[in-house]
Amino acid sequence: MEAAARVPELSKKLFMLIKTENQIIRSYENASRERISIASQLSEWGESTGDDGLSDISDKLGVLLSEIGEQENTFAEGLEDSRTILKQIRNTESSVQPSRDHKSKVADEIQKLKYKDPQSAKIAQLEQELIRTEAENLVAEAQLTNVTRQKIKQAYDLNFAATIERAERQIILANHGRRMLNLLDDSPVVPGDARPAFEHSNVARQIINDAEDDLRAYRPQYEPVQSSAEGLQSNTLMPAPTESSVAGGQEVPSSVAGDENTLSEQRQISGSVNSDTADYAPSQTASSTAA
Q: What's the predicted TM-score (pTM) here?
């Protein structure tokens, strides 16, 4: 609660979202460990039954279930990459808050002074300061909307890509698991009869090999997320000036244009920030992170 109290008002909602997302990530990491543990327990139980067929199948099922558990951990890593990008929006919101606050403060001072002393010479000074403050705030607000739109697309591009990959890899493993179950004969036996010897060990081993081959060959295919943010300067995330954007000695914002990029193809993430509150340094430059 103390950390939340220090967060600027503008970024409180995203601060809470990022904090909750961190709890979800920890849950998936725990789920990964538990599923791997269950896979090991299944294998050990099968061996303890004294049933050769059941022991062999439970051991192979344990291998598949363990790999399914590993996918949960990989998914958690994808969510952490997405969460890191959301922090860039939060940090930009934090850097804009002082500009908003100063603008409001100057405007309030002008109104109070006009009420108390309408002839005060200080009013003109404050009005000039307000003009400068509004100009600075205009730049900050433009940066905020640019950062927000670009980074929200990058963050959830990674989030949804990780979701798809986790699901499709687990589907591959689950289908091979169902193939494995078909090797176990569950026909009833009458008291005194012995079950036939298990004859599918080689097939069971091949199913494991098939699963490994399918995972190696797997290539995700999903709807590409397009971006037109190519024209943004990396240091300010404002549109880069062009020759045609200078008129009458003054720069005017150029339109943000350019070839569309697929965010899913930009998967290199800048260093992950572990703390939810430590990286609040006001920055005119939210680090540009390719997603």
A: 0.72
